[in-house]
Specification:
By secondary structure, this protein is an alpha/beta fold. It has helices at about 10-20, 30-45, 55-65, 80-90, 110-115, 135-145, 195-205, 230-240, 240-260, 290-300, 315, 325-335, 345-360, and strands at about 45-50, 70-75, 95, 120, 145-150, 170-175, 190-195, 265-270, 280-285, 305, 335. The protein is built from 13 helices and 11 strands. It has a 7-stranded mixed beta sheet, sandwiched between helices. It has a 4-stranded antiparallel beta sheet with strand order 8-9-11-10. The protein starts with 10 loop residues before the first helix and ends with a helix. It folds into 2 domains: about 10-240, Type I PLP-dependent aspartate aminotransferase-like (Major domain) (Aspartate Aminotransferase, domain 2); about 240-360, Aspartate Aminotransferase, domain 1, CATH 3.90.1150.10. The chain binds pyridoxal-5'-phosphate (PLP). Pyridoxal-5'-phosphate (PLP) binds near residues 55 and 151. The site of pyridoxal-5'-phosphate has 15 residues, from helix 3 and helix 4.
Length: about 350
């Protein structure tokens, strides 16, 4: 079976993990600090606070922004549900907005239209590396006193036209290093920010309101959102291969795009690759998606239907009864072909051949 995602580790991370255990690096310590420093250099951002996951990173960023009961947080309808669960678990109401017609990201005007006196924060999502219009979103947010938290969990490789990295243009940006990401240590995350005060609040919230567990006083509300040195040891070896992994992801994406050009039964999403927006998943649309998924599975290939819309989740449906016309085709037709930075040539060839076989019978 060719699974929908593949990321390999190998000897170097294994040795780093062994060494971390041998040196008793079993909590948050110098390797976590080294990971934060290295990520900050790569993203060119002064403050990085590592966290247990991308979800933990989002929760921390919202906590640092003071989001809680009585607040509204605006979220695009197309995203992994973590983006909405983080504010909801803090007691805030999630207000879902529709995405652009041609790209599954939140348009600035839909954000503007959803603002109410209760709006505390907005979370634009750079879904599959496609960048939201941060200039316009930030300008609207500033006018209304709304905090902007970028969800860049799927956009570690993407850059804006001015060269700045995804996740670095707002109050805080969140990243994930879970197993389904091209730079992975199994589970992990980070919040980045330009602002020293925000960084301080993030550090406190990460460990139950203390900067150091030996402190006798809890300064703020918080939790245990800590990253730790064993996965940090692995993550550091992955960051060493940042450019190589980025190139592998781009190359896989282009292989599929070239190899599947001309097929009428599927179509790629318009991408911003030439502008520096790097899709980490090879994402396509197919009107007969469910039949295609079954056909591929029968041929030993697992493709992934790409997310239902958030407004269909029971925990968000009642508060978000509107119509989400632009989101619907994505929920009905989107899927991800087997992706990941460590795909073999044979696997890619098998996927391309199965897709051609599907097309000839479609
Ligand atoms: C867009 C988006 N936001 C948030 C998350 C949450 O990250 P994690 O799984 O590390 O908690 C993910 C993870 O897939 C994601 O894709």
């Amino acid at each position: 079976m060719i699974s929908w995602w593949k990321v390999e580790f190998g000897e170097i991370p294994a040795k780093a993990a062994y060494q971390a255990v041998a040196e008793r690096r079993m909590t948050m310590g110098p390797l976590t600090a080294a990971f934060e420093k290295r990520l900050g250099e790569i993203l060119d951002v002064p403050h990085v606070v590592a966290a247990a996951s991308g979800t933990a990173a989002l929760t921390l960023a919202l906590l640092a922004a003071g989001v809680g009961p009585g607040d509204e947080v605006i979220v695009p309808n197309r995203t992994w549900i973590a983006t909405a669960h983080a504010p909801r678990l803090l007691g805030a109401e999630v207000v879902l907005v529709d995405v652009e017609a041609d790209r599954p990201v939140m348009p600035a005007e839909n954000f503007a239209a959803a603002i109410t006196p209760k709006t505390k924060a907005v979370i634009p999502v750079h879904l599959n590396g496609q960048l939201a219009d941060m200039e316009r979103i930030n300008a609207i947010a500033e006018r209304h006193g709304v905090i902007v938290i970028e969800d860049a969990c799927q956009a570690l490789f993407s850059r804006f036209p001015d060269g700045k990295c995804a996740g670095t243009k707002s109050h805080a940006g969140c990243f994930s290093f879970s197993i389904g990401k091209p730079i992975s240590c199994g589970q992990g995350g980070a919040v980045v920010t330009q602002d020293a005060e925000t960084a301080k609040r993030l550090v406190l919230a990460r460990t139950h309101g203390v900067a150091d567990v030996t402190m006798a006083y809890w300064e703020t509300l918080g939790g245990n959102f800590r990253f730790w040195d064993l996965p940090a040891a692995v993550a550091l070896t992955q960051l060493d291969r940042f450019e190589e992994r980025k190139a592998a992801i781009i190359s896989l994406y282009k292989r599929y795009k070239d190899g599947l050009r001309g097929l009428r039964s599927i179509r790629p999403l318009p991408d911003g690759l030439e502008r520096g927006e790097i899709p980490i998943y090879a994402e396509y649309l197919c009107e007969r998606r469910d039949a295609l998924m079954k056909f591929l599975m029968a041929n030993g290939i697992q493709a992934r239907p790409y997310y239902p819309n958030l407004n269909t989740a029971p925990q968000f449906a009642a508060r978000n009864p509107g119509s989400y016309r632009n989101s619907d085709p994505y929920a009905e037709q989107c899927f991800v072909l087997p992706s990941g930075p460590d795909r073999s040539e044979a696997e890619i060839a098998a996927v391309l051949s199965a897709m051609r076989a599907w097309e000839s019978g479609a």
